[in-house]
C-alpha cells in the first residue's frame, strides 16, 4: 500500500510539474510581449505608440509549432513552406477563423529574450509586435527555429452588407 501511495504521489508530482513549466514559459513570453506593447517603441525610424495587450492562443501555438517543426525537419527558413503554404494556410489548417494574421520568424537564437531583441531590431518584425490589429499571439520553438504567430479572430457578429 505504501508503495502504491508513493508511486501515485510521484506520478502526480511529475505530471503537475510538467504542465506549469510550459504554462509559465508562455506567461513569461506573453508578459514580455505585452510589456513592449504597453510602453510603445521605436521600430528603427518609426515610433509605434502603445497598443492593447495580447492574449495567448493555444490554436496559434499549434500552428506556430507545426511551422517550427516543419522548418526543422525539412531544413529551411522561410515564411513559405516548400509546398508554398503561408501563415494564412497554416492557421486555416488548425481551425483558426481569422480576419488578420501575421508571423515573425527567428533562427539560431538560444533564448526568447534573444529572439525578442532581434525582432525589435528588425523594422518589419517590430511593427508586427506592435500591430494594433492583432489580439492574440503564440510563440513556438523547434530546434533552432522560432515562430511567432499573431491573429485576430473573425467576428461572426458582423453581418456583411450587400451594397
Taking the alpha carbons of the first and last residues, their distance comes to 74 Å
- Written as H for each helix and E for each strand, in order along the chain, the element string is HEEEHHEHHEE
Strand order of the largest sheet: 3-5-6-4
Strand content: 15-25%
The gyration radius over C-alpha positions equals 19 Å
Helix content: 40-55%
Taking pLDDT < 50 over at least 5 consecutive residues as the criterion, the unreliable ranges are: 1-20
Main sheet summary: 4 strands, mixed
Mean pLDDT, as a whole number?
87
Which structural class should the secondary elements be placed in?
alpha+beta
The tally of strands reads: 6
Determine the number of helices (DSSP H or I, runs of at least 4 residues).
5
Shape category: globular
Topology record:
Layout: H1 2-39, E1 41-43, E2 46-48, E3 55-56, H2 58-74, H3 87-93, E4 98-107, H4 112-121, H5 123-129, E5 136-142, E6 145-153
Parallel strand pairs: 3-5
Antiparallel strand pairs: 1-2, 4-6, 5-6
Helix pairs in contact: 4-5
Describe what this molecule looks like in 3D:
The chain has 163 residues and is α+β, with helices and mostly antiparallel strands. It contains five helices and six strands; from the N terminus they run αβββααβααββ. The chain has helices spanning 2-39, 58-74, 87-93, 112-121, 123-129; strands at 41-43, 46-48, 55-56, 98-107, 136-142, 145-153. The strands form two sheets. Strands 3-5-6-4 form a four-stranded mixed sheet, with helices on both faces. Helix 4 packs across helix 5 (123-129). Residues 1-20 have low confidence and may be disordered.
